[in-house]
From TrEMBL, chain A:
Location within or outside the cell: Endomembrane system
Record's compositionally biased regions (Low complexity): 145-160
Transmembrane stretches, start-end: 18-44
UniProt entry keywords in alphabetical sequence: Membrane, Protein transport, Transmembrane, Transmembrane helix, Transport
Keyword Aminoacyl-tRNA synthetase among UniProt keywords: no
Name assigned to this protein: Beta-adaptin-like protein
InterPro entries linked: AP_beta, AP_complex_bsu_1_2_4, ARM-like, ARM-type_fold, B-adaptin_app_sub_C, Clathrin/coatomer_adapt-like_N, DUF4750, TBP_dom_sf
A family per Pfam: Adaptin_N
Keyword Protein transport tagged: yes
Taxonomic lineage: Eukaryota, Viridiplantae, Streptophyta, Embryophyta, Tracheophyta
Sequence ranges assigned to domain Beta-adaptin appendage C-terminal subdomain in this UniProt record: 865-982
Family: Belongs to the adaptor complexes large subunit family.
Record function comment: Subunit of clathrin-associated adaptor protein complex that plays a role in protein sorting in the late-Golgi/trans-Golgi network (TGN) and/or endosomes. The AP complexes mediate both the recruitment of clathrin to membranes and the recognition of sorting signals within the cytosolic tails of transmembrane cargo molecules.
TrEMBL record, chain B:
Protein name, per record: MHD domain-containing protein
Lipid bilayer topology: Peripheral membrane protein
Gene3D superfamilies in UniProt: 3.30.450.60, Mu homology domain, subdomain B (2.60.40.1170)
Keywords tagged on the record: Cell membrane, Coated pit, Endocytosis, Membrane, Protein transport, Transport
Entry keyword annotation includes Membrane: yes
Organism field: Linum tenue
Residues passing through the membrane, by range: none
Annotated family: Belongs to the adaptor complexes medium subunit family.
Keyword Cell membrane: yes
Length: 987, 437
């Protein structure tokens, strides 16, 4: 029935039904689907898409970082209006201070000029912390303006990280005022980021304000990070640093001693000179604090204050307070800090103030030293080092006192800290200096602890101890002869340790242990590290020179020669040479081996020179000596000047022994020598040449006299210096092996002072060159390759040499090379000194042409300024003289375009000026700006000239500042210098 | 002045700054650059740990993959500076729980800054003892007592206190003391089997879990101590039977009362809590070498070599050595190796040019051997004589001391008179154990 009814109704559909069926239903269905889709999108948008960065970007949803509100004009106008009125704001005792301070709504307006006072006043009046934060914000908006400006145009050198910094800034801002529960952790993360940027060198100083804002927190870690940041950037942002003062001052009064100490330390580390006034108060109360931790910090704070502003520290009478603390405080750390602070303060004051000098003396007075010694055990290890260092300066009145102190301190030798042990050893050594036998006993006593320290700890630590042991061994080698096994090197030890050990092995060798030591050293000669292998061969040689029984050693050395390794052969050659000078009786054995060495295999100048020396000296024993020498002379240019000098001498010697065979070699050598560019080689060739001209037999007497065996080789370091180093036991001097004034004193520090001015400088290298050059010279004169008579001749020669090498340039012959001139000069000299007829022998043809062009000497003119070609001045004394002398002449001169073009590197000019007897001590700079420091010395007087020369190659100008010890000749020197400078680039 | 460090830097191997802390203004800010330019980028690195650049001296030390650089501008105390670095590293390690390397520093740099502030003030070293510092610098960073309102720990009392190494009021349920005697043997033996140089450096490590303020006394079988003891007691009856040994030199932890040691030759002390190194000593006479190595190396022509190494253990048959590694050097141009070993395992390691022979458990009174044949690449260049590096050995022998040192007693006194349990262990390790071949 039902079905019939439905069929009926469906069979007769009405038009309305049609409409519903055909139009409405589809519409409904479609709209339903659309609504469904839209809902889906909405959901997706809300849940997912808004968080997708790209989508945010497209739809502009990204939040812009909150812009800093600029200083509004409205307020400043308001400000100015207040300024004209005389304020009677509550509590403002400072007349023009413009503070309008609403305690409830907390609007703070401060005029920039008075900001400091105003802020501190405001600060104390604002009670709820939130108000304080707002105060800070408003203060920043003022103070931040200039830095914000500057951060917009970062300097090109600033590393990237700009974006991160501004990100950090906005995040810090958000957190600044918030008091949400998790905010401290978030802040911590941010602070960590800031500090890590700071560490890697990104400049985050622009965040200063935000950082300080965020530091209103009870969290101690946050505080520490903030203080670290503030301490780092306070110096560059002194105005902003002021803002932190209030936090810090308040924290200095905190009930927790940790926070008090922390705040005080940070306050004193701000290092801003105009904030010291805020430091004095907290420091004063810190020094009186009843907690030791705060006192230790305060003591150091006083020292920091002294370094920022000495006068403030002294005015507040802190030294006296420190002294009182030092004598009475119950805590050892406080005492130790007082001691170090007072030592520093009085040390620097003692030069100006008599009282300080007296106080400084008082530190090493008997009662005080005894006071410290009695409390020594309370100190921690570092404090003990400090005290012991002081005790070492104390001079006891009698020997009993000496022994008392030593007995008291003996247990310190057992201390685990190497520094304490070394400090104790210093005390012992200093106390017993005058008692020879006890001094020796002290050596015996300290040996064991030192050896323990050497064998324990890291290589660096053992190096530090080993240097000290090295010093002691050098002073008293005989006491360590039985301990030589401790100085054997281990395979894996770093080379700096090995080097010291080798030196010590050399020093302790004596009759009883030579064999073992030399055997051991020979093992090292096969070492992988070439430097160590060389060092050990040298050590063998040194031992050989020390000992009388050298049989075994000579054999070993000769074995080295046969090892066929270049460096081994080279070192061994030098040694054999020295050995022969001391023990001529071994010549036969040695020469047999040396004769087999081909000179082609020897490349190093020193070794080659040694080989050549032997060839010359033992020419009669080696059949082919003249021919080897001849082939060497033919390759004249290949060798270093040092080798050429030796070659000349060797050929001369050989010539006197075997004239016919050597004649050819001599001819080649003399010709090459005379045209040599190296001054010394040239001079020596000329000297030999003249000598031969004069008389062959006297030439032989000069060049090849009977030799005496050398008994003792010269020591390189004077005893005085050694004693000085010894007095500075337990310091860097020992490691550097030179007294401290050579490396710490500003006067002696040498040209590094200039380093601030010159970028990219080569100063150190240059000055080393100078020093090296002078020392080479010294070696050469003292080098016993020349016999004594020969040496004297050379010296006379040098004296003459200074005469003719003076670059007196006559304007008429500027094109002549200087060398030709000097030859002329010497011809003239010899002519006057020796008017014999030999002056024109056949060989003289070499110079014939030049004789004619000799300029007439200006006899009537005043003696021209002549300079010493071998002037030597070390960096330290240059520095001192430079400081002492006034500027004699300051002038600008033209360099000339060729000169400017030739000046591509500082070295070019150096060589040029050196040719004119003007030495360079320091140079630096890069094109187009160069800077040089030159010096020159008068030929016959020690008087020196110092020149500062700044050259700009683009303008071809040179700015000269000349200082002279002898003012009267400074103009002559200027002329000389200018002429030398103007010729630069011409040749 | 002892140190007065102007700055301290931590750099990684590339020269990036991990930590920088300036203490004084007397050095410029670009000291790191100077260090990088003059030391790290030149061959100077490693040639000397103390260098002068400009007016400043640099002390540097490499610890795992980090350089620690101290810059000073005055004539500083070198030993003190290096000791400070070593102590500081030990402190950091105790905070990080072991490793000290670049990653550890990066992860903990805030903590390091905090510590650097505490351990050095204006360049002068302050308190470096981990026990005390841990009281008030914690890894989490204590909330200030502001917020927590808890009573302030009396840490600051001890920060500067005289017994700086121990805190009062410790209490343990079980009172235990662990003593470890660790000796390392350094040996240099010639190829002919004669001892060139031999010494033992030993240390006594202690781990204390004791309540209150106990006073400890340690007795060893060293000669001087024993003699003194019999003198003091004035009766030679109770003699110590067995070997007595002569200590060349002893150094003690700062807790040991050195005055008492000097007068009575007894080691008495109030120990710090936890682990510490009580004493170090050195012995050169009468060392029992645990191993003898007998190498024979024959060069058969230009391309072949024969290596025979026999290692003999000379300690008691009931003992075992653990982790024995013998490194036998071979020339660089080694092409092929073949070997036979009677125990353990051997292989050729080309990166260090060594045959590495490992024996995990090495019983006493045995002598395993290794025989190897080595083929070399024949080089056309003239024969380069091979500088034979020494054979190196690593080992650990538990319950054996090369010096023969024994602990005779360890007495503990405390007011409350509790009982303690003492544990003593001995171990001998190889220091640099080298035999030339």
């Amino acid at each position: 029935m039902d079905s019939a009814a439905t069929s009926f109704s469906s069979s007769t559909p009405s038009p309305v039904d049609y409409i519903v069926l055909l139009i409405l239903r589809p519409i409904a269905a479609i709209s339903f689907v659309f609504v469904f889709i839209a809902l889906g999108w909405l959901l997706a948008w809300k849940l997912v898409l808004v968080h997708v960065p790209l989508v945010q970007e497209i739809f502009g949803l990204r939040k812009k970082p909150a812009k800093f509100k600029p200083q509004t004009r409205r307020i400043s106008r308001y400000y100015n209006s207040i300024n004209t009125r005389n304020s009677s704001a509550p509590g403002s005792g400072y007349p023009p201070v413009l503070v309008q301070c609403c305690h409830s709504s907390s609007i703070a307006i401060i005029k920039p000029n008075y900001s400091r006072v105003a802020i501190s006043h405001l600060w104390s009046s604002l009670e709820p912390p939130s108000n304080r934060i707002r105060l800070l914000c408003s203060t920043f908006s003022q103070a931040m303006a200039p830095p914000a400006q500057s951060s917009r145009n970062p300097s090109p050198s600033q590393p990237s990280g700009k974006g991160e910094v501004s990100d950090l800034r906005s995040q810090l801002r958000q957190l600044a005022g918030s008091r949400a529960p998790g905010v401290d952790d978030a802040k911590r993360e941010l602070f960590k980021k800031v500090i890590s940027y700071m560490t890697i060198g990104i400049d985050v100083s622009s965040l200063f304000g935000e950082m300080v804002m965020c530091s209103v927190t009870p969290d101690i870690v946050l505080k520490k990070m903030c203080y670290l940041y503030v301490g780092n950037y306070a110096k560059v942002n002194p105005d902003l640093a002021l803002l932190t003062i209030n936090f810090l001052q308040r924290d200095c009064k905190d009930q927790d001693p940790m926070i008090r100490g922390l705040a005080l330390r940070s306050l004193s580390s701000l290092r801003v000179a105009n904030l010291v006034e805020y430091l004095v108060g907290p420091l004063g109360s810190g020094l009186k604090d009843n907690n030791a931790y705060v006192r230790t910090v305060a003591v150091m704070g006083a020292l920091k204050l002294y370094h920022i502003s000495a006068s403030t520290c002294l005015d507040a009478d802190f030294p006296a307070v420190l002294k009182h603390l030092m004598l009475n405080d119950s805590e050892s750390q406080v005492v130790a800090n007082c001691l170090s602070a007072l030592q520093e303060i009085w040390n620097s004051e003692s030069s100006t103030s008599e009282e300080a000098a007296r106080e400084k003396e008082g530190l090493i007075s008997k009662p005080f030293i005894y006071y410290l010694l009695n409390r020594l055990r309370e100190f921690n290890e570092w404090g003990q080092c400090l005290v012991l260092e002081l005790v070492a300066k104390y001079v006891p009145s009698d020997t009993n006192e000496n022994f008392d102190i030593m007995n008291l301190l003996e247990d310190r030798l057992q201390h685990a800290n190497g520094a304490v042990v070394l400090a104790t050893i210093k005390v012992f050594l200093q106390l017993t200096l005058s008692m020879a036998d006890v001094h020796q006993e002290v050596y015996e006593r300290i040996k064991a602890p030192l050896l323990t320290l050497v064998s324990s700890g890291s290589p660096e630590q053992s190096y530090a101890v080993l240097s000290h042991l090295h010093l002691l061994v050098m002073r008293a080698p005989y006491l360590f002869t039985s301990d030589y096994k401790h100085f054997y090197c281990q395979y894996n030890e770093p080379s700096y340790v090995k080097k010291l050990k080798l030196e010590m092995l050399t020093a302790v060798a004596n009759e009883s242990n030579t064999y073992e030591i030399v055997t051991e050293l020979c093992e090292y000669a096969a070492n992988v590290y070439v430097a160590i292998a060389r060092e050990s061969i040298r050590a063998v040689g040194k031992i050989a020179l020390q000992q009388y029984d050298v049989n075994a050693i000579v054999d070993r050395l000769l074995q080295f020669l046969e090892m066929e390794k270049d460096y081994v052969t080279a070192e061994a050659l030098v040694l054999v040479k020295d050995l022969l000078r001391k023990y001529p009786q071994w010549s036969h054995d040695c020469i047999a081996v040396v004769g087999n060495i081909s000179s082609k295999n020897v490349q190093e100048p020193k070794a080659k020179a040694a080989l050549i020396w032997m060839l010359g000296e033992y020419a009669q024993d080696m059949d082919d000596a003249p021919y080897i020498l001849e082939s060497l002379a033919e390759n004249w240019e290949d060798d270093a000047p040092e080798v050429r000098l030796h070659l000349l001498t060797a050929i001369m010697k050989c010539f006197f022994r075997r004239p016919p065979e050597t004649q050819k070699a001599l001819g080649i050598a003399l010709a090459a020598g005379l045209s040599d560019f190296h001054q010394d080689v040239h001079d020596r060739a000329l000297f030999y040449y003249r000598l031969l001209q004069y008389d062959v037999s006297s030439a032989e007497r000069v060049v090849n006299p009977p030799k005496q065996a050398v008994s003792v080789f010269a020591d390189t370091q004077s005893n005085e210096i050694k004693d000085r180093i010894f007095d500075e036991f337990n310091s860097l001097s020992i490691v550097y092996q030179k007294p401290s004034y050579m490396f710490t004193d500003k006067d002696h520090r040498g040209p590094f002072e200039f380093s601030d001015e010159i970028d990219n400088l080569t100063v150190g290298v240059e000055s080393e060159h100078v020093v090296a050059a002078t020392s080479v010279d010294a070696n050469e004169t003292s080098d016993l390759l020349l016999s004594t008579s020969e040496k004297e001749e050379t010296r006379a020669m040098v004296a003459n040499g200074s005469d003719y090498t003076a670059p007196f340039y006559d304007s008429s012959t500027p094109a002549l090379p200087s060398q030709g001139q000097s030859e002329l000069a010497i011809t003239g000299l010899l002519g006057t000194a020796d008017p014999g007829p030999q002056a024109s022998t056949a060989i003289d043809d070499l110079l014939m042409g030049l004789d004619l062009t000799a300029p007439p000497a200006p006899a009537s003119a005043p003696p021209p300024l002549k300079l010493n070609a071998r002037a030597a001045l070390d960096a330290g004394s240059f520095q001192r003289t430079w400081r002492e002398l006034p500027v004699a002449i300051s002038q600008e001169c033209e360099l000339g375009s060729q000169g400017a073009a030739a000046l591509t590197s500082p070295q070019a000019l150096l060589h040029h000026m050196q040719g004119n007897s003007i030495q360079c001590i320091a140079s630096g700079g890069q094109s187009p700006n160069f800077k040089f420091f030159f010096f020159a010395q008068k030929a016959y007087e020690p008087s020196v000239f110092l020149v500062e020369c700044k050259i700009n190659t683009s303008t071809t100008k040179a700015q000269l500042n000349i200082k002279a010890e002898d003012q009267s000749t400074s103009h002559e020197f200027l002329a000389l210098f200018q002429s030398a400078l103007s010729r630069f680039g011409l040749s | 002045m002892p140190v007065a460090a102007s700055a301290i830097y931590f750099l990684n191997l590339r020269g990036d700054v991990l930590i920088n802390r300036l203490y004084r203004d007397d050095v410029g800010g670009n000291m790191v650059d100077a260090f990088r330019m003059h030391i790290m980028q030149t061959k100077e690195l490693g040639t000397c740990p103390v260098r002068q650049i400009g007016g400043c001296s640099f002390f540097y030390m490499r610890i795992s993959n980090v350089y620690i650089v101290i810059v000073v501008s005055s004539n500083a105390n070198v030993a003190c500076a290096f000791k400070f670095v070593v102590e500081a590293v030990a402190l950091f390690k105790s905070y990080f729980g072991g490793a000290f390397d670049e990653d550890a520093i990066r992860n903990n740099f805030v903590l390091i800054y905090e510590l650097l502030d505490e351990i050095m003030d204006f360049g002068y070293p302050q308190n470096l003892s981990p026990e005390i510092l841990k009281l008030y610098i914690t890894q989490e960073g204590v909330r200030s007592p502001f917020s927590s309102k808890k009573p302030v720990p009396n840490a600051t009392l001890q920060v500067t206190g005289a017994v700086g190494w121990r805190r009062e009021g410790l209490a343990y349920k079980k009172n235990e003391v662990f003593l470890d005697i660790v000796e390392s043997v350094n040996l240099l033996m010639s190829s002919k089997g004669s001892v060139l140089r031999c010494d033992v450096t030993g240390k006594i490590l202690m781990k204390c879990f004791l309540s209150g303020m106990p006073d400890l006394k340690l007795g060893l079988n060293d000669k001087i101590g024993l003699e003194k003891e019999s003198q003091l007691k004035n009766r030679p009856t109770k003699r110590y039977h067995g070997k007595t040994i002569e200590l060349d030199d002893v150094t003690f932890h700062q807790c040991v009362n050195l005055t008492r040691f000097n007068s009575e030759k007894t080691v008495s002390f109030v120990p710090p809590d936890g682990e510490f190194e009580l004493m170090k000593y050195r012995i050169t006479e009468g060392v029992n070498l645990p191993f003898r190595v007998l190498p024979t190396i024959k060069e058969l022509g230009r391309t072949r070599m024969e290596v025979n190494v026999k290692v003999k253990s000379v300690f008691g048959a009931k003992m075992f050595a653990l982790g024995v590694v013998i490194k036998i050097p071979v020339p660089k141009q080694t092409a092929k190796t073949s070997f036979q070993v009677t125990s353990g395992r051997a292989k050729y390691n080309a990166s260090i040019d060594c045959l590495v022979w490992k024996i995990r458990k090495f019983p006493g009174q045995t002598e395993p051997t290794l025989s190897a044949e080595i083929e070399l690449i024949s080089t056309i260049a003239e024969k380069k004589s091979w500088t034979r590096p020494p054979i190196q050995m690593e080992f650990q022998v538990p319950m054996f001391t090369a010096s023969g040192l024994r602990v005779r007693f360890l007495k503990v006194w405390e007011k409350s008179g509790y009982n303690t349990v003492e544990w003593v262990r001995y171990i001998t390790k190889a220091g640099s154990y080298e035999v030339r071949c």
